[in-house]
Specification:
Rhodanese-like_dom; 5 helices; alpha/beta; Rhodanese domain-containing protein; Oxidized Rhodanese, domain 1; STR4-like; globular
């Protein structure tokens, strides 16, 4: 079963803002959350779920679906509230959205460009993605 599709960072924010049952799941690593920053969904009064898709070494988080179920445990039974997945550049979050859909969390969306976007011609990130679109974020 395929995930619901790809949306831009701005579309993701609008979906989260306009649907109080929608949830954002950041699937980057703990190091990325701590040192790069995380989306700030406090302005729309809801938390962002932080669940690693892979660890810093690149090993898949075998407990991902169980951790997702725990994070989304408060959803109403039979909920069709959107789940929006975000990673650094929009690649890892495809796998997370696919796994979530297979586990019954639908619709699940992937955020194109992710939090920082792909590498640019100078091998730098940050010219695209959640932060580059001026969406709320915070850093610890």
């Amino acid at each position: 079963m395929s995930y619901a599709g790809d949306i831009t960072p701005v579309q993701a924010w609008e979906l989260l803002r306009d649907n109080p049952d929608a949830v954002l799941v950041d699937v980057r690593t703990e190091a990325e959350w701590r040192f790069v920053g995380v989306p700030d969904t406090a302005p729309i009064d809801r938390p962002t779920a932080l669940i690693e898709w892979v660890d810093v070494g690149g090993a898949r988080n075998e407990a991902f679906v169980d951790q997702l179920k725990q994070a989304l445990a408060g959803r109403p039974a039979g909920s069709d509230a959107p789940v929006v997945f975000l990673c650094r550049s929009g690649q890892r979050s495809i796998g997370a959205a696919t796994a979530a859909t297979a586990a019954g969390f639908a619709p699940s969306y992937n955020v194109l460009e992710g939090f920082e976007g792909a590498l640019d011609e100078r091998a730098h990130r940050g010219g695209a993605g959640w932060r580059a679109h001026g969406l709320p974020w915070r850093q610890s």
